[in-house]
Write a structure and sequence with these properties.
globular; alpha/beta; seven-stranded mixed sheet; binds nicotinamide-adenine-dinucleotide
Length: 458
């Protein structure tokens, strides 16, 4: 039988050897999902909502053990694992609260015996191929609205967060979602590829640009609903009227939280020359205060790097930047193992010739560039193929508004960063992806409209 080994990235120990899927089992699960979906869609919405409410109850009940599982397989510091699980609850509440109005039938015209109506139908069977960095968030952004709107879901969690994926399945099944309506597929890329080959009605992907591009090519001729939530190189500009200390503390957290392994981590910082030196000093001091170590410790802020190959990316970006004139302010090297560890790293005097300012780092590494003013800052913020988030720190709302209006990004932040709200759409420009999750639009994403033209006889 095929198996998938699970390693703890904090110490390199193998913690599980899971039975895994193959091409045959994926096809069988997809066929069962197809068979099961109509009955699930035919249930009254209140019954599907009741299942999701019971699922929420299970998450609350098991929160501590779910946090430990996530920390063991991803290296996420335990406090951040709890934060993610607690942050999931308002997302579930949002979906439960908004699904009724979003999928209710709409009568848009009713005159002279003619009625026009819009019905919101489920897509059918949808695939969800997901990332490991926030497995509860990115998984449930798809799973919960997809199930509520009557779809069956084939969920392929990341091979680096599979135990969490199986826990998601356990809690959903325990809450009353039929086993064939929500199915977890265990394995790495080839299992995701096997899922793509099935006759699915939608494919919702969270992960890297490279895999997203491959997936888009793979389904292109089939016209399935496709959403890609990909990486970013998220910039922030600190204006000269901002408080350098407060901005530095906020942005250090935005860059290093989750060990910098967030899609919306702050990845580039531009600082007005008038406060550049004060900002860098405060930023480095804040980062030096972040404790690295055992992810199970309550004190830990910098955890393990989940995927070992990312260490090479971080080493290469730092070497490239230093080779081109960047100043290393702290870190810049791996930390001793076992496991995958990288020191929180700050570089100043960086510029856009450097990979560090062009390609996603996805680790605790940040470049800070001095700029002469707003025009240069906007030009540099937009000098990217990505466009997930961007931010500005200034006390002046009009200036912030003017700057953020010029930036190409799915989400923009004023005096905050690294923030996601269930009430707002989560989307990206350019190579950060297509489609969206969250908000009422992120419920509608899992439906297709059917137009009814109804003429009364006579
Ligand atoms: P990844 O692209 O390596 O893997 C993502 C998923 O794709 C995994 O489940 C993997 O098994 C699967 N996969 C790999 N090859 C495949 C193939 N050929 N066919 C089908 N599936 C395949 O990404 P990752 O390392 O898991 O995640 C990190 C990336 O995700 C970062 O770039 C990050 O920015 C991005 N991300 C984006 C968001 C967002 O909302 N925009 C959220 C979280 C993470």
């Amino acid at each position: 039988m095929t198996t998938l080994p699970i390693y703890n990235p904090a110490d390199g120990e193998r913690i599980a050897q899971l039975p895994a899927d193959d091409v045959t089992s994926v096809a069988a699960k997809a066929a069962r999902a197809r068979h099961a979906q109509p009955a699930w869609a035919a249930l009254p919405l209140a019954e599907r909502k009741a299942c999701i409410a019971r699922f929420r109850h299970g998450v609350v009940r098991d929160l501590e053990s779910l946090a430990v599982t996530m920390t063991r397989e991803t290296g996420k510091p335990i406090r951040m694992s709890r934060n993610e699980l607690n942050g999931l609850l308002p997302r579930i509440d949002f979906f439960l609260g908004m699904v009724d109005p979003v999928i209710a039938n709409e009568t848009v015209f009713d005159e002279g015996g003619m009625t026009e109506r819009i019905q919101h139908l489920p897509l059918g069977v949808v695939g969800n191929i997901s990332a490991w960095n926030y497995p509860w968030f990115v998984g449930c952004n798809v799973i919960i609205p997809a199930l509520l709107t009557g779809n069956a879901v084939l969920y392929k969690p990341s091979e680096y967060a599979t135990m969490t994926g199986l826990e998601t399945a356990r809690l959903l099944h325990e809450a009353g979602v039929p086993e064939d309506v929500f199915t977890c597929l265990v394995g790495a890329g080839p299992v995701g590829a096997a899922l793509l080959a099935q006759p699915i009605d939608g494919l919702f992907f969270t992960g890297s640009y490279a895999t997203g591009a491959r997936i888009a090519a793979g389904v292109a001729s089939r016209f399935v609903r496709l959403q890609l939530e990909l990486g970013g190189k998220d910039p922030t500009y600190v204006c000269e009227d901002a408080d350098p200390q407060a901005a530095a503390e906020s942005l250090a957290d935005g860059a290093m939280y989750n060990t910098g392994q967030s899609c919306c981590s702050v990845e580039r910082i531009y600082v007005h020359e008038k406060i550049h030196d004060a900002f860098v000093e405060a930023f480095v001091a804040t980062v030096k205060g972040f404790k690295a170590g055992d992810p199970m410790s309550e004190e830990t802020y910098i955890g393990a790097i989940t995927r070992a190959p990312q260490l090479d990316v971080l080493d290469a970006q730092v070497a490239d930047a230093v080779g081109k004139g960047a100043q290393l302010r702290t870190g810049g090297h791996r930390l001793p193992g076992p496991g995958n560890w990288y020191a929180a790293t700050v570089l100043s005097h960086v510029d856009h010739r450097m990979e560090l300012m062009k390609e996603e780092s996805f680790g605790p590494v940040i470049g800070i560039q001095k700029v002469a003013g707003d025009e240069e800052a906007v030009r540099l913020m937009n000098d990217t193929r990505y466009g997930l988030t961007a931010g500005v720190y200034t006390p002046d709302p009009a200036r912030a508004q003017a700057l953020l209006a010029q930036v190409n990004a799915g989400s923009v932040y004023w005096n905050c960063c690294d923030r996601v709200s269930p009430r707002l759409p989560w989307s990206g420009y350019g190579d950060s992806g297509i489609g969206l999750t969250l908000s009422t639009y992120g419920i509608q994403s899992f439906t297709r409209p059917k137009a009814w033209h109804l003429r009364q006889p006579g």
